[in-house]
Write a structure and sequence with these properties.
- By secondary structure, the chain is of the alpha/beta class.
- Helix content is about 30%, strand content about 20%.
- The chain has helices at about 80-90, 115-120, 125-140, 155-170, 195, 220-230, 255-275; strands spanning about 40-45, 50-60, 65-70, 95-100, 145-155, 170-180, 205-210, 235-240.
- It has an 8-stranded mixed beta sheet, sandwiched between helices.
- It is globular, with a radius of gyration of 17 Å.
Length: about 280
């Protein structure tokens, strides 16, 4: 890697050890997955202008692990996202969650949702795509990852990114998008939304949505479902009628155990069915 200039940056240890301050207090239903039999912790991912932090979890023994990119909510790579990585590692995956907002700011220390959204709104999709590419390259080169078995899953903000990255990277075999935004304004930083790439999508995506999600209207979900019919891929959208937004987030009041467990089973089946296992 070339010598960094003053305009470039190097990641320091910045991943949160706890849960996002903005969604305190933490629910009593938190799932905690241990690291027994795993290699798990923070790593540094080389990117175009330096390095960014990421959380990586994988089996301690073996090689050529299927790679799963785990894309965060707006609250950063905190304890919940890290635990999701460990859950996947227990299933035999190399799971890696890069900190997507590292250049714009540390959202994990903020309690004001308006401040968090201000930071997130400054993150260009092009930067996100490039950083995820870098995470895949790192996983393959430095962590025994098998790029031929590449999957992606993301939550909320990361759910939207799951759709977009699957359209961006032809190496992705399958994706699972948890309640990701599907429609929205086209801007310089976010020129396309999932609805815009649906008909050209070449990767099977499983979308998991809540019927009581006040932030993602059901008509937009149905619009996406209709668009996917013309893409030629076996993508699928599942709507849980009584589930709110963030129903998988066990540290939040929105958690719904039945729907979360069903979605997690569907995720495992989806990756196996589509060659990410």
């Amino acid at each position: 890697m070339p010598q960094l200039t003053r305009r470039e940056f190097i990641a320091v240890s910045s991943l949160s050890a706890g849960f996002a301050i903005a969604v305190q207090p933490v629910s009593a239903k938190v799932i905690t997955t241990d690291s027994k039999g795993l290699i798990a912790g923070e790593v540094k991912i080389p990117v175009r202008d330096g390095t960014i932090p990421a959380y990586r979890a994988q089996p301690a023994l073996g090689e050529n692990f299927p790679i799963i990119l785990v894309v965060q909510e707006i609250f950063g790579v905190h304890a919940y996202i890290q635990d999701v990585c460990r859950r996947l590692a227990k299933l035999g995956y190399l799971a890696i969650a890069p900190e997507m907002f590292y250049r714009q700011g540390d959202v994990s220390k903020l309690s004001d949702i308006v401040q968090i959204r201000s930071i997130v709104s400054k993150v260009p999709d092009a930067q996100v795509m490039s950083d995820l590419d870098a995470a895949v390259a790192w996983a393959a080169k430095s962590s025994n990852g098998n790029i031929q078995k590449l999957g992606i899953t993301g939550f909320c903000w990361g759910g939207r990114i799951t759709w977009l990255y699957a359209a961006h990277n032809p190496d992705v075999k399958a994706g699972v998008a948890w309640y990701g935004k599907l429609v929205g304004e086209s801007t310089k930083l976010t020129p396309k939304n999932p609805i815009d790439i649906a008909q050209s999508l070449q990767v099977p995506i499983l979308g998991l949505y809540g019927g009581k999600d006040t932030g993602i209207p059901l008509d937009s979900v149905e619009q996406m479902r209709d668009r996917l019919k013309g893409c030629g891929m076996n993508s699928e959208i599942v709507v849980y009628p009584e589930a709110p937004h963030a129903f998988h987030a066990d540290y939040r009041p929105s958690y719904r155990q039945t729907e979360a467990e069903d979605g997690w089973k569907r995720l495992q089946d989806w990756f196996k069915k589509n060659g990410v296992a």
